Amino acid sequence: MVVLAFVLWLYMTLWFLLALLRRDNSLADIAWGAGFVVLALGALLQRGEVHARSLLATALVVAWGMRLAFHVAARNRGRGEDFRYSTWRRQWGRSFVWRSYLQVFLLQGALLYVVALGVMRINLATPPGLSWLDAAGAVMWLKGFLWEAISDWQLLRHGRNPATRGQLLDRGLWRYSRHPNYFGEALQWWGIWLLAVAVPGQWWTVLSPLTITVLLLFVSGVPMLERALAERIPGYRGYQRRTPLFVPWLPRR
Fold first, then answer.
1. Over the chain, what is the mean pLDDT?
2. How many other CB atoms are found less than 10 A from the CB of residue 136?
3. 195: which residues sit within 8 A by CB, 6+ positions away?
4. CA 205 – CA 120 distance, rounded (Å)
5. Tens digit of pLDDT for each residue in 136-153?
6. Are 174 and 151 in contact (CB under 8 A)?
7. What distance, in Å, lies between the first and last C-alpha atoms of the chain?
8. What angle (nearest 5°) sits at the alpha carbon of residue 33, between those of residues 52 and 214?
């Protein structure tokens, strides 16, 4: 685990240097998804032995991480730095460089490491054969993956259409949740945790899905977007009143 932590530190430092050269801290969002691929594959290589559960968990995490990284790269192409990072660039002034390294890249790397605990422990531990928990986890992961991928695609298409750009998106999966992509992301990590729980003594890796759920709901995901969208998108406050925040459900009249 220490070796993997060092690899992750080196990985995030390289992304920071690239962001510094390009003057675009939005690269941290691409590094986030791809970082899980690095840790999952690194744990698999460090163990030097593969089995059904480690192959399953690694395949799921790699599929999620690569899809997210490519989606973010496509979404950000030609848009410049994300408004969150550009705001911090103005606010931090002369301390921008070291605060970017510590508060954006290294902090994100630390959180990434905690969220990846489940898949790392699956790949490093010696597990029994597959069980119903593995099946339940895979089904939960698949449901989350579809929610995130489809809602991301709907949002990307909506934003690229000149007729709908800058307007409220309340169709498709966005009719049932104001943040269906975040819901799908959290659900996937609860699915990975079910795979980890199937390994004796790994219940404590619940820190992984708890961390990503708290981050999305209360820290860097939902709160920042809710404030920004309520100010920028016409009709968003009405959308807030009728549409569930996170867990999908039928909209209120």
1. 92
2. 15
3. 53, 56, 57, 118, 122, 133, 134, 137, 138
4. 10
5. 999 999 999 999 999 999
6. yes
7. 50
8. 95
pTM attached to this predicted model: 0.90
Task: Give the span between the Cα atoms of 105 and 9, in whole angstroms.
Answer: 9
- Which is it for the CA torsion 104, 244, 192, 149, positive or negative? negative
Q: Could you give the angle at the alpha carbon of 2 between the alpha carbons of 26 and 70, nearest 5°? A: 25
Chain segment 226-240, per-residue pLDDT in tens: 998 999 899 999 999
Burial bucket for residue 78 (CB in 10 Å: 0-12, 13-18, 19+): exposed
Q: Within 13 Å of residue 113, how many CA atoms lie on the same side as its CB? A: 18
Give the span between the Cα atoms of 119 and 186, in whole angstroms. Answer: 14
Task: Write the CA distances from 18 to 12, 112, 146, integer angstroms.
Answer: 10, 19, 31
Helices (H) and strands (E) in the chain, counts: 12, 0
- Whether 122 and 133 have beta carbons less than 8 Å apart is answered as no
- Single-letter amino acid code for the residue at 134: D
Q: Do residues 176 and 243 lie in contact, with contact meaning Cβ atoms separated by under 8 Å? A: yes
